[in-house]
Every structure is written in structure tokens, then in C-alpha cells.
Fold ABC transporter permease.
Amino acid sequence: MTKIANDRTSRLRAVRSYIKLYRLLIRTSIRSRMQYRFNFALETILAALIQLSEFLMVAIVLAKFGSVQGWSVHEVGYLFAVMTFSKTIYRTFGDEVHHLERYLVEGELDQLLTKPLPVLLTLMPRSFRVMFGEVIQGGAIMIWALGTMLGSGQVTWWAIPQTVFAVLTGAVVLFAIGLATATFGFWTTRISMLQNMTEDAAQTAARYPLTLYPDWMGGLLLTAIPVGLVNYLPALYILRGELGIWVFLLLAAAACLVLLIALRFWMFGISRYQSTGS
């Protein structure tokens, strides 16, 4: 019993030290980015404008035709905003996972393997991104879309905490997809083309109602590449009252499951990793 207690104590101490180190690395990354404040401000403004212009083009078309597959422009805006927030959280904390290809090609991953910490813990905070542009864009669309639906009585104030829950579970799902995609790099080295499909194209597709697509594609976006769990599935309940309150239990369980699968796949992949020799 004493040995078990000592093992638990040592594990807790290790976890606390990891968390403290992670916070330190994040602060260091933020300070390095804030040294170039003009570039940071310009990048933020441009990112917000680009994202807003993309939705405005869709909004103009929807304003012309009224709705798409029964989804109003405000509901589509909600899908856009939830996806943007979830992606922002994922890329804020896990941006280097998305850029693992560079570490593989240039041999930098070998350096991380020599560290006394887990590779993923060392990798993630190396480029902590403060994505204010995406936050501004997502916030503007969310306030407009959800505010209008609150005013019309389509949703109640309960939609706000429910949306926060959807955003957080969605961020976990997107991180898991990104981590699983990056893991293929341990065998292929180059993963940018795969990321275009599993992350960029899939996330773009999920900004719209999945009923727009053939049944096989909608099923794909809910299972194999489950980006539909990020915004579409919760929106069915939050905005339309479809499904049931159980959808939040499903989202939580699905987020934990895909994260566990992605982490197991990552550990398997890194055990098979062979150095580039550079």
C-alpha cells in the first residue's frame, strides 16, 4: 500500500511539474510574439477581415435566396462561428501539431526525443498562437447570429452555455483529428496533402449544414472525419430543438473517445518513428 501511495504521489508531482513547465513555455512564446507588436496587430486585423469576407459572400447569397436546405443565414452564421471558435482553441494550443511536417523534414523532432518530457508536451507550447483575428471574426458572427435568434425567440439564453460546451468539445475533436493526421507523418514524412483533406477541406465543408451533401459524405463527416460533431450536431438541438438533451452526453463521450484514439495512435506512431538522419 505504501508503494502504491508513493507511486501516486510521484505521478501527481510529475503532472504538476508538467503543467508548470507548460505554463512557462506558453508565457515565453507569447512574450516573443508580442515583441513585434505592429506585425501582430496587422496580422490580427488581416485575419479578421479575411474570415469575415468569406462569410459575407455566403451571407449575400443566402440573403438573396432566403435559406439553404431550410437553414437561415443566421443558423449558417452560427455554424461558421462555432467552427471558428473551436478551430481557434485547437490552433492556439496545438498549432505545432499541425506543423509537425516541418519537424519531420528538418529533423527537429530528433531533438525533442532527447528531452526528458513527453514529445507532445514539449511540442505543443513551442509556438503558442494568440489568434485574436479569428476570435474577433467568430465573436462578431456569433453575436450577430445568436443575438438575432435570441431576439426572435428561436432560442433561449440556455443556448449560450450550451454553445460554450459545443465549442470546447469541438476543439477537442479538431485537435484529435489534427493529431491523428500528423501521426501519419511518422511513416510518410509529408502530411500537408492529407491535412488539406482531413482538416482544411473537412472543416470548410462543416461550416454548412451537412444536409447539403450526399448521405455518404454527411456520414463521413460525422464518423471517419467527425467535424460534424463540432457544430452541426449540437446546432440541431440548440437551434432547432431536434434530437434531445442527450446530444451533449454524446458530444462529451465522442470527444473523449476520439482524443483517446488519437493519443494511442500517436504513441504507436512515435514508437515506429525512424530518424531522418539529418
About this structure: Strands lie at 67-68, 71-72.
